[in-house]
């Protein structure tokens, strides 16, 4: 999935550098509507796009864990 907005792309890359376990935490926070330091400068729509991108990135890892 390609992200057009460079600030969203940079945010996703930054969050992913923290590792899978932390990314799962970020996903939970975003789903709960939490605003944390890494996403504070993003709009609600941009935070949703970050969430969608993180979920897509993590999907293969979560599928392996459930198999």
Q: In percent terms, what proportion of residues is strand?
A: under 5%
Residue-averaged pLDDT, rounded?
91
Helix content: 55-70%
Q: What's the alpha carbon Rg, rounded to whole Å? A: 11 Å
Largest sheet, strands/sense/barrel: none
Tell me the domain tally: 1
Number of helices: 3
Please tally the β strands and state the result.
Answer: 0
Q: Which structural class do you get from the secondary structure elements?
A: mainly alpha
Any idea what the shape is? globular
SSE run: HHH
Oligomer: single chain
Provide the low-confidence segments as ranges: none
The N- to C-terminal Cα distance equals 24 Å
Summarize the structure in short:
The protein is mainly α. The chain has helices spanning 6-16, 20-31, 44-65.
Folded structure, characterized:
By secondary structure, the chain is mainly alpha-helical. The protein has one domain (7-65). 67% of the residues lie in helices and 0% in strands. It contains three helices and no strands. It has helices at 6-16, 20-31, 44-65. The N and C termini lie far apart (24 Å).
Give a topology summary.
Blueprint: H1 6-16, H2 20-31, H3 44-65
Helix pairs in contact: 1-3, 2-3
List keywords for this structure.
3 helices; mainly alpha; single chain; 67 residues
């Amino acid at each position: 999935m390609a992200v057009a907005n460079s600030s969203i792309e940079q945010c996703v890359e930054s969050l992913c550098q923290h590792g899978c376990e932390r990314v799962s935490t970020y996903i939970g926070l975003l789903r709960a509507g939490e605003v944390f330091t890494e996403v504070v400068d993003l709009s609600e729509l941009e935070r949703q796009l970050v969430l969608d991108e993180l979920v897509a990135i993590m999907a293969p890892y979560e599928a392996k864990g459930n198999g």
